[in-house]
Amino acid sequence: MPRSDGPKLDLSPSRVKAYEACPRRHRHRYVDRWEEGGDRSEAAVGKLVHAALEHAARGRLPGGTLRGTPAALPELLEGAGGAVAELGAAAEHVAAAKVLLEKVAPVEFGEVLAVEDLWTLRLGGDEGPLAGGYFDLVRRSGDVVEAVDWKTGHVVLEDEEAEVDAQVVLYLMALHDGHPDAKGWRVRLIYVASGVVVTPEWTEALDRLARARALAAWRAWSRGHDTPRTGRHCWHCPFRDRCEAYRAELERETKIRQESPVEAKDLPFPELLRQRARASAAEKLVHGRRQDLDEEIRRRMERAGLDQAEIGHGLSVAIRTRRSSSYDVALLPALAAELELDPYDLLRKIGRISSTEIRQATKDSPAAADLAERYRSFSTTSYVEVKAPGGPFA
After folding, report:
1. If you ran DSSP here, which 8-state letter would residue 127 be given?
2. Which of 97, 309, 324, 385 has an alpha carbon within 20 to 30 A of 110's alpha carbon?
């Protein structure tokens, strides 16, 4: 069924998530109908990947000749190619989609029950709102019915986070109501780029919580409640630069940072805590804005094929890399045995697995230091370095 032919819905997982993040963001998207700005390349690539997987899954529906067979890369690329004209995808989007499809091919679909399957839920009784959406794929695995959602973005949820994600819990409710004959219900989130798979399962308690949350969000926006809620989520909001609340928060926090602070020792304790909280919020906002700017700088330099450039007015910019190290968490029990310590005593002693703490813990034992190195790995990350006439800005 084409998505435009579905019933008129009162709410969807994306609406609930948008409202819970910030009621003003929900208003801008669903009431004011603001266009989402920014680079939509990631969305275009995602649509191509979904089109490829949908094409392959449909060939494995009941009665299909391909049922039970894996989908190889040529079949997936054929599906993506068929959607290029419809989506108006550029050559760079097709190339990026091919890279992602190479990571998942061949795809084992299993016993496919439905593809792009519309689900609806009536919440709060016969007169309650109608929630709904589409499953990318519904399949059966033994006694368990599973909804598969292909994720082509970079935000990865852990199992614990997925259990409180609005989309996931509404999916679980719909699976449970739509397939009452099953012995179990779960959602499989497959992050194509990283290969991470998350599989939260339905529970009665989670079902009650999800229904209450969805109803609460619907009632609140139906009554016109749209108080802005600024915070970390603002960094990813497509309406941020046009949002008065976000600009006001930035200006307020910038002003706090610029004012000459009263000596901390002279402040009453409640005011000391308030100023500490405001300073933390300011740091997060400024850090978020810097990340946005760095991301745009990287994008423009990649398009120009540059890793450094002179901008004029004495400014120069370069993409640098820094080397960092980390320790596998399995080091803790191994190190505890080497140092003849209880693992919990070791954890209390070092506090965290950092290079400084590990060096301090192993300084008197060459064998322990050698052991730690075996659990150590190195990686490099890129960052934007801007230099001005007065000196560098890291």
Report:
1. T
2. 97
Query: Which candidate, 151, 145, 120, places its Cα nearest to that of 45?
Result: 151
Residues paired with 186 in a beta bridge: 146, 201
Q: If we measure between CA atoms, which residue out of 212, 249, 216 comes closest to residue 230?
A: 249
Q: What is the share, in percent, of the chain residues with pLDDT greater than 90?
A: 32
Q: What is the pTM of this model?
A: 0.64
Distance CA 198, CA 160 (A): 9
Closest CA to 14 of 182, 217, 190, 241: 217
Residue type (1 letter), 8: K
> Would you mind telling me the total number of residues written for the chain in this entry?
394
Return the DSSP state at 264: G
d(CA 213, CA 289): 31
Give the chain's end-to-end CA distance (angstroms, integer): 52
User: pLDDT tens for residues 270-326?
Assistant: 777 777 777 777 777 777 778 878 888 888 888 888 888 887 777 888 888 887 777
Instruction: Tell me the two tokens of residue 157.
Output: 């949820």
